[in-house]
Description:
Blueprint: E1 2-5, H1 20-46, H2 58-78, H3 82-89, H4 97-115, E2 122-125, H5 130-152, H6 160-168, E3 174-177, H7 189-198, E4 203-205, H8 206-234, H9 236-244
Amino acid sequence: MVHSSDRPSADGDASRPSRLGPRLAQLLSALLGITALLAFVLFLFTGPWQLLVLYSDTTAVLAFDACLSAAFFAQHSGMIRRSFKAWFENRVPEYYHGASYSITAAICLYCVVLFWQVSEPVLVTANDPLRFAMRALFLAAFGGIIWSNLALRSIDAFGLQALRCHLRGTLPPAASLTERGPYRWVRHPQYFFVLVMIWCYPDLTADRLLFNVLWSTWIVAGTLMEERDLAVTLGDRYREYQSRVPMLIPWRLPR
């Protein structure tokens, strides 16, 4: 997995432009990004909140929910592609890309959490003690995500680092490879733990089944696309890491 380490700039004393734009982008990205992620975790644990009922017909409910998911997938996977970044950086300073990505992703995620429609009835429900075990496994997976972030030691989930570097007049940090903690067992532990959290909800309705299938498929597809980008960025060292460590499911002991 990639993390960042600080790297000084040769032009650190260069004149600095207005700080208002970068500061505002930092604030919005951190505020929206953190709150949206916490809301999503709560959404996964409690189930849909059904704040606004738009449809009662099951077909309409599933179609609407699928569109919500597709909008998030398109944003999340599209804005990180090299072609979009090249288009973006021709129009906006490149140090805004990460924060813009984070803000847009948070808005799309809020739409999923707040507008998700619920279908009836419940198809399958887990009784005690299986229900308790699934709840415990969810919390353990959430702890695994925190462990994964701590193992990186330096993570820029909301695009704040590029803005900080711009304000300080330093260059963005170079990408490097992390092989500590859960990254010794699996190359993408955060995605693995999210999959566990998705499937640990004990009451399965048609809309929840749709959510589980769509989001699991997207996570696998997104991981494959990210693998391609990482191989290009990090080269042979990452390919050697691929040969030793499973991509998504920790099915063997680390060597």
